[in-house]
Design a protein that fits this description.
Elements (H helix, E strand, L loop, with lengths): L1 H10 L1 H7 L3 E5 L3 H13 L3 E6 L23 H9 L6 E6 L10 H4 L4 E4 L4 H14 L3 E7 L2 E7 L16 E2 L2 H5 L5 H17 L20 H22 L6 H17 L16 H7 L14 H19 L13 H17 L7 H8 L7 H18 L17 E3 H4 L7 E2 L17 E7 L1 H6 L2 H12 L5 E5 L4 E4 L21 E6 L8 E2 L2 E7 L9 E2 L7 E2 L4 H6 L18 E3 L13 E2 L20 E2 L6 E3 L1
Parallel strand pairs: 1-2, 1-4, 2-3, 4-5, 7-18, 10-15, 18-21
Antiparallel strand pairs: 5-6, 6-8, 8-9, 10-16, 11-12, 11-13, 12-19, 13-15, 14-17, 20-21
Helix pairs in contact: 1-2, 3-15, 8-13, 9-10, 11-12, 12-13, 13-14
Length: 633
């Protein structure tokens, strides 16, 4: 009762009664999400749903206070709910799943909530929830922490900047040749050891191996170097047989192949070393002498080269003993000391060869294991700010009423804000939407409700006619499925006009972009319309399809020179790359046409593209490599 009376005094009896009827969605059950769940319960939200894809691992326990040792490998969302159930008066509903999965979480599922609270560390998921917020006109509170830095950003669609209004740091890209031939940083050697060497020797699925297939962005046109990389990959099959046959006598052969012979071959490529320092291969004598002894158990110490070699041999023996028991498939795990030490020693030996500073095992654990530095108190402060701001955004604070979203403040910790070092928190005012934002400003957006029967009966031609009539678009338009950048219809591509929406592979959750390709006499264009297809029951609407009531404004595309000048500051990133937590992307782009359904893969027409830009560059789909490196293929 004491808890409820305190909240009642803050928001008032009437608002507290409303709060008990409100539903909120928390996305992410990690460091911030755990704190958000606790705070929303204490605040008195009537119903709280929490979504997280991940399971608990050892590194979570020091900063995610709802989890214990016994919870390792359990789903975060369900475990968090169990941990708070005993003091909760709210209805709690956990989900384990990807919030971007439209089958599990369709748009009408999001529509039940009054507010979204993000506690994510994944850029793609943040952007997705931001877009859902824009579609449904629902308030969102974005938050994030890194060490002592933290921030919150309230987002009120149409009134304030959205998450994508400001350009986000893009993931760093490393061509294959950098990883495989010319590393210059510790991260290059760690990626080589974890995503290439470890996978080749100890995993059965090597589809994510760095640079072993045609079509890669090798980062070089040197055919000799590319052939060497391919040959090196093929030769590793012999080393894999040593591991699979548990032939411990020949572990030194693995070392000599990787760190002597392969480096000597690399030195024969004179073009690589015209402006770079040459690597120095190990010697057979050094490897043979180091195999007996020189052990160290201090993971925070910098090991000598002899200790690195000795530890590499010892841990490879341990992994050989495990590989049969684990069905020839050992996965890298930052909390598995055998796999961690293997990756660390391999990376450090390679770093020594290329004259790169070596790291402690603990440092490499942070990088290879994608551990984002986090401090429990920062998470708690940021989550508290999020829930308090939610009350203000929902107008539950009588003494701090909001007439518009611009009355609400952001919040930054002192280091994150760069505004003031004299106080811990800075709270700048929110800004209106960025007129150059491709998410909230450059497109109109709406939800089209359609029945299953409508998907089966309505053709693309009929849909386009409905959109033209409803929103006054001209005769020449284009239609693109944004989920995989498929061009469905264009003024010079009409092969699919007679296909139904289901035959065109459109379904519940599909997002399509409808664009004006013609303009009028004064060179004004109708703003592009992004449509979310929401499949509903027949009883929910009066016909098979229901278009939203929208006013689509006209706009004047910028001149080509202006467009070129603005490229560096554009908030749109295309093609969008899902960010690996460690900021590493291995480029592997493949272009083409889907011959099965006849659709063409093209870049969608950007809202500021001119009329003459009728030919679109092909883009590739994204795939997230579970090992922490994203490969675009």
């Amino acid at each position: 009762m004491g808890r409820e009376s305190s909240i009642t005094r803050i928001v008032g009896p009437e608002n507290y009664a409303k709060l008990q009827q409100f539903k909120c969605l928390i996305v992410g059950a990690g460091g911030i999400g755990s704190e958000l769940l606790k705070d929303c319960i204490l605040m008195g939200f009537g119903e709280i749903h929490i979504v997280d894809l991940d399971t608990i691992d050892l590194s979570n326990l020091n900063r995610q206070f709802l989890f214990r040792q016994k919870d390792i490998k359990q789903p975060k969302s369900t475990t968090a709910v169990k941990a708070v159930q005993h003091f909760s008066n709210s209805k709690l509903v956990p989900y384990q799943g990807n919030v971007m999965d439209t089958n599990q979480f369709p748009l009408h599922w999001f529509d039940q909530f009054d507010i979204f609270l993000n506690g994510l560390d994944n850029l793609a998921a943040r952007r997705y929830v931001n877009k859902i917020s824009q579609f449904l006109k629902k308030p969102l509170i974005e938050s994030g922490t890194s060490g002592f830095d933290g921030y919150i950003q309230p987002i009120l669609p149409g009134n304030t900047e959205c998450f994508d209004c400001t350009k986000k740091e893009t993931p760093k890209t490393f061509p294959v040749c950098t990883i495989r031939s010319t590393p210059s940083q510790p991260i290059h050697c760690i990626v080589w050891a974890k995503n290439f060497l470890f996978n080749q020797l100890f995993t059965s699925d090597q589809s994510s191996t760095t640079g072993d297939s045609d079509g890669n962005d090798w980062g070089t046109d040197d055919k000799e170097e590319i052939e060497r990389i391919k040959q090196e990959t093929n030769e590793l099959h012999d080393l894999q047989q040593i591991v699979h046959h548990q032939d411990k006598v020949h572990i030194t052969d693995i070392l000599k192949k990787l760190f002597v012979k392969d480096i000597e071959k690399l030195l024969q490529l004179d073009n690589l070393w015209k402006s770079r320092a040459k690597p120095t291969p190990l010697t057979d004598d050094l490897i043979d002498s180091a195999k007996d002894g020189h052990d160290s158990t201090d993971l925070n110490a910098i090991w000598s080269l002899e200790e690195q070699i000795s530890q590499f041999i010892n841990v490879t023996e341990k992994l050989m003993d495990r590989i049969v028991e684990e069905d020839y498939n050992i996965e890298f795990d930052k909390d598995d000391q055998d796999t961690l030490v293997f990756v660390a020693t391999a990376a450090n030996i390679r770093s020594h060869i290329f004259g790169i500073p070596i790291k402690t095992v603990f440092d490499i654990k942070q990088i290879a294991g994608n551990i984002i530095p986090a401090i429990a108190t920062t998470n708690a402060i940021v989550a508290g700010l999020s829930t308090l701001t939610a009350l203000r955004l929902l107008n539950f604070l009588p003494y701090a009423k909001t007439n518009s979203g611009l009355d609400v403040n952001m919040a930054f910790t002192a280091r994150a804000s760069n505004l003031s070092k004299d106080r811990y928190l800075s709270n700048p005012k929110l800004a209106p939407p960025n007129c150059n934002c491709a998410v909230c400003a450059k497109v109109a957006r709406g939800v089209v409700k359609i029945t299953e029967k409508g998907l089966e009966k309505l053709t693309l031609s009929q849909l386009i006619d409905l959109l033209k009539k409803k929103y006054n678009y001209p005769s020449e338009t284009s239609l693109i499925d944004t989920s995989d950048q498929r061009l469905l219809v264009d003024f010079d591509f009409e092969d699919l006009l007679d296909r139904t929406l289901s035959q065109a592979k459109l379904h519940d959750g599909s997002v399509i972009l409808f664009s004006d390709e013609e303009g009028d006499e004064s060179e004004m264009y109708r703003k592009p319309l992004e449509i979310y297809l929401d499949v509903v029951e027949e009883s929910a609407i009066n016909s098979e399809i229901e278009l939203p009531a929208l006013e689509i404004p006209l706009f004047t595309p910028p001149k080509q020179e202006e467009e070129d000048e603005g490229k560096e500051t554009s908030t749109e990133e295309s093609p969008e790359k899902e960010e690996d937590k460690n900021g590493i992307v291995i480029l592997d782009e493949d272009e083409g046409k889907d011959e099965k359904d006849g659709t063409t893969t093209k870049r969608p027409r950007s809202p500021d593209q001119t009329e003459n830009d009728s030919k679109r560059a092909k883009t590739s789909k994204n795939h997230n490599d579970e090992n922490g490196v994203i490969e675009l293929d």
